[in-house]
Amino acid sequence: MTSAPFEPGLWISVLPLLLVAAAFTWLLSLPLRKLTVADSLWSLLLFAAAVVYALGSDPRAPRLAPVLWLTALWAARHAAQVAWRGSRHGESARHAELRELHQPGFAFKSLYLVFGRQALLAWVVSLPLMGAFASIAPLGPLDHLGIGLFAAGLLCATVADWQLARFRADPAHAGAVLNRGLWRFSRHPNYFGECCLWWGVYLLALSAGAWWAWPGPALLTVLLLRLSRRPRPRPAGGSPLPQYADYVLKTNAFFPSRPRD
Q1: In this structure, are residues 107 and 31 in contact, taking their beta carbons and an 8 Å threshold?
Q2: How far apart are CA 42 and CA 47, in angstroms?
Q3: What's the pLDDT tens digit per position in 218-237?
């Protein structure tokens, strides 16, 4: 396999665009007084990075169109899902916790604690998108494996989010723990699916010879593993649900497996 060259100039050229987009979204969040827009920003940043990389790459790159379409599909699903979740449930517990920890002045601090941080993370995570366009090497088995892994990860994340949304929408499940469907095998099957699909993009980059793109999916994996191990927020004025403690004992936080007895 021929190694594709790493182009630092092209990679660096994306960062100002991501920072400007993050700053603009931060301005939009100020009158809203909540950070629901920050979750949708993530997918838009990565799709914007993919477009810039495509424009700066050889138009003959055989992975250019497939990767752009895959990224657009992922970005549309992700943005729609988090926007719908925000409209139903408001600000995420993670952002609410940040707001509480960094008062007073969190409205300004969120510029770098949330939005700027997202731009920097997206910049690193986007490396396999640039890598996939880095050469005109013909498509091979790794590309098909990468597309398959991407599709499986996207399906896993989509189904997991749908199962969770349907569960939460039923008033009969108030105070209950979702331990059915994909959630029977992992406490965060949506995170696991997200991880898989970005490693799928890396396989396309690797097939192009861009072995150096591995820090992108590696960083995302570390972030998702950390999120999956965060303790569940307690109900207002209460203690963690006893059913959830049992669920934690029986179910892996991230990687799917058979529930433990």
Answers
A1: no
A2: 9
A3: 999 999 999 888 766 554 44
